[in-house]
Amino acid sequence: MDALSRAVEELLGRASGPMHLRLILQPSMATFLAIRAGMRDARSGQSPLLWTFLTAPGERKQLAKTVWKDVGKIFVIALLLDTIYQIVALHQFRILQTLLVAVALAILPYLLIRGPVTRIARASGRGKQVASAKPE
Question: 18: alpha, beta or left, given left = phi > 0 and alpha = psi -120 to 50?
């Protein structure tokens, strides 16, 4: 239990420690990319990301490539910045904390935002307007 409480304390310490601005910037970048991808999905008539991932097993590999293409760099930057944070602030390295932080800062916001943006864009007609504005 001591290790768990230490891990929670170290994870929460990132909010006020050095380099805490990344906790705002990285999810913001992932959100921006998710909005852009959601709009792209709406224009092309694709189903929302998570729904497609769950219901179309044949498309999972391609969807994973798309997600990685969009947020891979942000994920790697999150890994590097958290490693630097741990060395500077904690004087140690904990790989599981690094992976948890990187997923929370890069992948989770992307996955939570992309599908709803696709639905909203499709419902508002914005996806169709942009698609019809393209030259054929």
Answer: beta
Separation CA 99–CA 11 (nearest Å): 12
Only one residue has tokens 């760099």, namely: 73
Q: How many CB atoms lie within 10 A of CB 35?
A: 18
> How far lies 75's CA from each of 29, 31, 92, in Å?
11, 13, 21
Task: Give per-residue pLDDT as tens, 74-96.
Answer: 999 999 999 999 999 989 999 99
DSSP assignment string, 46-97: PPPHHHHHHH-GGGHHHHHHHHHHHHHHHHHHHHHHHHHHIIIIISS--HHH
Rg (CA), the chain: 18
Of the chain, the end-to-end C-alpha distance in Å amounts to 62
Nearest to 108 by CA among 28, 27, 22: 27
For the entire predicted model, the pTM comes to 0.81
Alpha-carbon separation of residue 136 from 49, 126, 128, 130, 132 (angstroms)? 26, 18, 14, 12, 9
